[in-house]
Amino acid sequence: ELKVEQNPLFLSMQEGKNYTIYCNYSTTSDRLYWYRQDPGKSLESLFVLLSNGAVKQEGRLMASLDTKARLSTLHITAAVHDLSATYFCAVEAGANSKLTFGKGITLSVRP
Amino acid sequence: DGGITQSPKYLFRKEGQNVTLSCEQNLNHDAMYWYRQDPGQGLRLIYYSQIVNDFQKGDIAEGYSVSREKKESFPLTVTSAQKNPTAFYLCASRTGTGLYEQYFGPGTRLTVT
What we know:
heterodimer; A: 6-stranded mixed sheet; 5-stranded antiparallel sheet; B: 11 strands
């Protein structure tokens, strides 16, 4: 059974500083996705990582994938209040396109 | 304007009643999914369908039913057999080419008392 773990589950960030959050998964995967969720809202797609060593960047967020370590990282550069949200990673394994989600990491940026 | 719509946004029901949540997409996606989200939790897969007239159980299908008679529509019925139906329900669809991303609808918040 595929398991996806995210840590930490909650992170209080100071504005302007850099942070990294992690997503570990238990079995070989074809794809890894990062989503953002604002309170009471749906999920917004951030990144799709398809292969070992993949790196994607959008604004202050950079995601990378190490399939050998079964680890993805999401790096935040110079945190700003707008980045406060819950971030989920999801892993796809097998031919049926099912996603398994982690429990999410809630980021809160303080002045 | 392509996208996924879910209705209603909020739904209140009494215990023992069946309720159907609507999900429609005009993205021409073949695959559609239903997830449940509980407070402080990730998403759990209820049912999914990869083509019309076919669907499979996900990880938590008990107490739920679906149909897929049209490509655009994938309604979810929450039956009285579902022990804890109060949750946030999200529908998604997925492109069959390119990055294979799942795109999510706005969700339906169901409260059963």
